Amino acid sequence: xxxxxxxxxxxxxxxxxxxxxxxxxxxxxxxxxxPQSKKSKRSVALNIIKDFVGEDKIKMFYFxxxxxxxxxxxxxxxxxxxxxxxxxxxxxxxxxxxxxxxIYSTFNYLSERLKNKNIPFEIIPGIASFISLANRIAxxxxxxxxxxxxxxxxxxxxxxxxxxxxxxSVAILxxxxxxxxxMEIVRRIKPSYAYLGIKLYMEDERIVNLLEDDVQNIKDxxxxxxxxxx
Length: 230
Ligand SMILES: C[S@@+](CC[C@H](N)C(=O)[O-])C[C@H]1O[C@@H](n2cnc3c(N)ncnc32)[C@H](O)[C@@H]1O
Prior knowledge:
Distance between the termini: 48 Å
Mean pLDDT: 93
Number of helices: 7
Bound molecules: S-adenosylmethionine
Oligomer: single chain
Radius of gyration: 19 Å
Strand order of the largest sheet: 3-2-4-1-5
CATH topology of the largest domain: Cobalt-precorrin-4 Transmethylase, domain 1
CATH superfamily of the largest domain: Tetrapyrrole methylase, N-terminal domain
Helix content: 25-40%
CATH architecture of the largest domain: 3-Layer(aba) Sandwich
């Protein structure tokens, strides 16, 4: 088969949620490019794959938590060059990312660059965070005839509330320290259910029922998302 870069959605938190295709691609790779936050130094992706790949094969990719276009451009240019070099040297390269690659993933900055360099890549689907949370709480995101949206908390309370004019349920990603905003959305929507999932499928996982549980002690929900259904 023609060599190509594998771009792999790892699912969230637990390596048991990797697909067989993902696992095979990771095991067969010479280099596994793994994102890490420069600020927090955390790598959820590394935790998921660490039992299946030798440390010597892992190339950490520190991505800046900034919206500075220039800084981002520099990082992604360097990354694309690194991949190009490895690919031309006939190395099997994988690029891993949490959840599914199509959802707010760092890879989306790289894909254009790889296309411009004529580097073939194949994306392996992963289980997205909102799918994990819906299953964890055993609630349907949508039933027949209903619709669903995915939004970032940074869109703001008003935009998220107005999405419910069109759809029945919304997944809100990147909640972070905006718990008060999340609670305002809940108060305004008066939903049938509303849950916050923090560090899903990880050791310190926490699932909060926003209609019943006390949210006072949640200050900063790092790695969390909410699903709300009206
Ligand atoms: C950069 S986005 C990546 C989304 C990912 N590609 C997906 O398919 O869900 C990061 C956000 O995904 C959500 N997320 C990813 N993994 C999570 C987990 N284990 N627990 C809770 N939220 C998670 C959080 O909202 C986090 O802020």
